Amino acid sequence: MASYYSEDKTPLIRERKSVYKISSLTRKYPYDLSKDEELDKCLTIFDIISYGVGSTVGAGVFVSIGVAIKTAAGPGTLLSFLFSAIACLISAFCYSEFAAKIPLSGSAYTFAYVALGEFAGWFIGWNLTLEYAISASAVARGWSGYFSNFFTVFNTTTPEFVLGYGVDSVFNIQPLAPVIIIICTVILAFGVKDSARFNMAITSLNMITIFFFIIFGSFFIDTSNWSPFLPFGFNGVFQGCSKIFFSYVGFDSVTTLSGEVKNPKRDLPLGIVITLIIATVLYCLVSLILSGMVNYKDVSENSPLSDAFLSLTSKHPKLKWAAFAIVLGTLTSLTASTLCSLLGQPRIYMQMAKDGLFFSKFKEVNKKTQVPLFGTIFTGVFASVLALVLSIESLSNMISIGTLLAFTVVCAGIVVMRLRDENGNENHVIKSPLLLLIMFIFACLFGWASSRSWKYYYQIAFAAPMLIIIIMLSVRKQVNVPDTFKCPLSPVLPCLGVIVNTYIIMHLDVDSFYRVFVWTAIGCIIYLGYGIRNSKLNELEQDSIN
């Protein structure tokens, strides 16, 4: 990095100030595709679909679906998955355009850094921890819940260390949960290609387990369990969206592998969209079957699929073998989900460290395995601690808000990128980031009014400015249309993505906002204390002064 002193030791005050100017928060990274060349480009389209499906389907079907059915939407969880899929499809198009144009390992962090500036990139990169590392923690909690069903199947008492030690509704000590995280961390430490082969095998078993539940469970549906279909109303459906949204992080995790894909411009968009389609179909089918087998009030939050068969054993004693098959398949499937979640986080840390915004230790890559080893171990330890102490519901809400914030920023980034020229300049008095920020604020108000059942004229008052902003952005000429994959109907579709994602965010519980505010405050301290001073863009600013 350039020195802050001239040859005669006189401080170069202008250079030092340039690091701390307000404009530093909005400076944008001029991406260079050579940054990821040290990673092993070994993954094919089948590998990335396997990672996406393995991560997505395991988390949604086996963990969050029970919480959504019992506490939020009832049988209407089917609609929750459909609405979430629509929001995800919009975001998927935006992710695909970014991933094809900027095939780096940082996912939404890199996209935000290039499109919206350094602080936006840092904000998303930091909050992606809520998506990846904490997702691994939540899935590990689900894994331990299903493991306890082994003892139920064989009519033996479940040991207390397997059930966990309850403290309150948020904290619940679960000694078994970190075990699966430690195992997956060790697997990832041996290299991404080896873990890809492992994941392909596990994902195949995952599909067999899901299809077994769908086909065999359909013979035990009681249609009376579908009435009422919406026991908590449509507001419950959207609350269900907020609870199960983290189930769709799989297609996002695909973009963290950008630097290791052989043909990213073709394979990444295909992998993202195919992953989303497969996950949505399976989610809807499983939620329909599960809510038909068991009344929504009796659905298990910890191990819903296997408990559905166990609940029928009083009438059909021989069904225990089916519960055993589900438990066995679920444990391997959740192993794949945990592995995929742990795979993504170290690569985001690595990209942030390369850009100087995070501690340099995280950018080190093992020469033999070509894996960011320190970041992988750190992520494993961090996820293990959270899995040990926090409940599934607390973890899933934290994941959903982190995921939705990332999706929102990526959608906004597409609009901004299309309206700027190759030098990052936008020829308008009112810049697009400001318009999008205003739209985000009104989307928050609109979602808050809807979740609190405010009168319709309040909701119309909040919706009208958003429509005006969409029209203002639509009439502007797009000067930077990519020659790779293009998000359709831009900027209308990305703007709808911002609105829909924000709408779902506002249906989360208040405690989720407290947690994300505290987490963001910690991140801001790290950024202002370390990142802004060590950013690689400081060198560019100093070189331009010299």
From TrEMBL:
Gene3D superfamilies reported in the protein's UniProt record: Amino acid/polyamine transporter I
Keywords for this protein: Membrane, Transmembrane, Transmembrane helix
Transmembrane segments: 48-69, 76-98, 110-134, 146-167, 173-192, 204-221, 233-251, 272-294, 321-344, 371-392, 398-417, 429-450, 456-475, 487-506, 512-530
Domain (Cationic amino acid transporter C-terminal): residue spans on this chain: 485-535
GO cellular component: plasma membrane
KW Metal-binding (keyword) present: no
Gene Ontology MF terms: amino acid transmembrane transporter activity
Domain of life of the native organism: Eukaryota
Record's subcellular location: Membrane
Membrane topology: Multi-pass membrane protein
PANTHER family with a match to the protein in the record: CATIONIC AMINO ACID TRANSPORTER C-TERMINAL DOMAIN-CONTAINING PROTEIN, INNER MEMBRANE TRANSPORTER YGJI-RELATED
Protein name: Putative cationic amino acid transporter
Organism: Heterostelium pallidum (strain ATCC 26659 / Pp 5 / PN500)
